[in-house]
Amino acid sequence: SRRDPHLREVVRFAVCCRALTLLLQARSVPDFNPSLLFQALFNLLIPDHAADAFSPPRLSEPGLWDLLVERLLGGLSRWDAEHFLFIAERGYLYEHNCAFFPLYPLSVRAVAEGALWPLQRLLRLRSRLLLSAVLLNSLFSVLAATALYQLGCVVLRCRGVAFLAALLFSISPANVFMAAAYSESMFAFLAFSAMWQLEKGQSWLSGLLFSLASGARANGLINAGFFLYSRGKCFALRLQGASGSVRKLPPLWKELLSVASSVVLMCAGIFLPFALFQYYAYVRFCGPDTGLERAVPKPLLQLALDKGYRLAAMDGLKPPWCSQRFPVVYSYIQDIYWNVGFLRYFELRQLPNFLLALPVTLLGSWAAWTYIIADPRYCLTLGLERRKSEEEGKPRAGFCCPAVFVYVVHATVLLAFGFFCVHVQVLTRFLGSSSPILYWFSAHLLQEYEPLLCSQETDDQTATPRSEKSLLGKSGSCGKGTSANPVVRLLQNRRLISPLGRCVLGFFLSYWLLGLILHCNFLPWT
């Protein structure tokens, strides 16, 4: 809404944080800008790490403008970003590229060939792809913040907590992956938007957005649970309302068939991009020899030989997964190339990575425990029991309200799966781009226990907002240098922040900054 000052502040703060991120990661350029001395110092103190990561050779000589783009944005093309940019440039040439889903690289290529087409005389394709990725992620991260705010207003029924959560998203611990050429920003925008539309009752639009999200990241498949729960809860509550009324039973059976058919269609739509991509990989790597190997440039063929990468139909030999009953390349790559599996990461040498994931693990576990102890009966009945407060239309507001239940379950499933089955250090960006719970619970803690945040109404404020002054203007004893932005207000009065507030903001800001320093210099990060 144009009249919502909270939403305008979310957009303004998100744009400022993204601009600051790009400024800090930029490489030092002579006579560029004195403000870049900060990041230039990091580049001197922490040189690029010689990481054993995917790094395909550049097949064309860079021009002057290419070198400038690499200087300014090269820090955002590290680690998995190399895969996305390589796929956008050359397609799924190597087998292990299929671990990265196609929607994001296709979007990057489309912008590079479309909106950035006038720059083709100045920049080679690789530079335009990198520029396209940065522009797209800047847009998606701002849109994701606005979608999270709108979702929070509907679910939490408390505009203040939703506002603070959206601001925290802009300084997310997974910030560097929202800016780099990764699919996290796109996925967060699609997932949060789909959740918001589902809460508003726009099922088909929500299904489309969820389907697109599963074309960006594999964990988008889990979002089918939102449809299952939404339809199941609606039917269960209607059934309880119709109990004892024989006259209403036939319509309920019809509704059951309607619910079942809509769930099947929606879940099929969500799973369709995954299935199509697996089929594409099967045709490409398990089909007959198409002469692709002869068309691959020699440097890329040599890279495959040196690193053991498998090309499509290489030497006429098909990969082992082609002969499986269900030939799913994604699970094969995770198993063989990255050793992903239950408890496989539980090794003493991985202790630093478990420590890296400790803050988000504790925060996610605390969020689930807080919700459970607030209303154990509601959790035990899975929220399928009709209550008087719901009948009267006056459910609780805030983090512990009934509508948050399915999001807590979703976040807990992701947390458990990430902790026990994947490389645990990715938990921060895994949760940070997939679930609103990390931001809602952090905002809840700050709102409830931080004295510097002046008391705000916690009732349902999702109606048309009052004037800007009443919503954002703060007066009174809130500390010096009061600001309309609660995050800025806390930072302005950082010496007065409570220990809990320091822990929450310290986690967000330290990971925000450390991610830029380490990831952009090719050092291991989350």
TrEMBL record:
GO terms for cellular component: endoplasmic reticulum membrane; mannosyltransferase complex. The chain crosses the membrane at residues 129-149, 161-183, 203-229, 256-281, 354-374, 395-420, 503-525. It comes from Eurypyga helias (Sunbittern). PANTHER family: GPI MANNOSYLTRANSFERASE 2 (PTHR12468). It is found in: Endoplasmic reticulum membrane. GO terms for biological process: GPI anchor biosynthetic process. Keywords: Endoplasmic reticulum, Glycosyltransferase, GPI-anchor biosynthesis, Membrane, Transferase, Transmembrane, Transmembrane helix. Pathway: Glycolipid biosynthesis; glycosylphosphatidylinositol-anchor biosynthesis. One of its GO terms (molecular function) is alpha-1,6-mannosyltransferase activity. This is GPI mannosyltransferase 2. Mannosyltransferase involved in glycosylphosphatidylinositol-anchor biosynthesis. It is a multi-pass membrane protein. It holds the Pfam family Mannosyl_trans2.
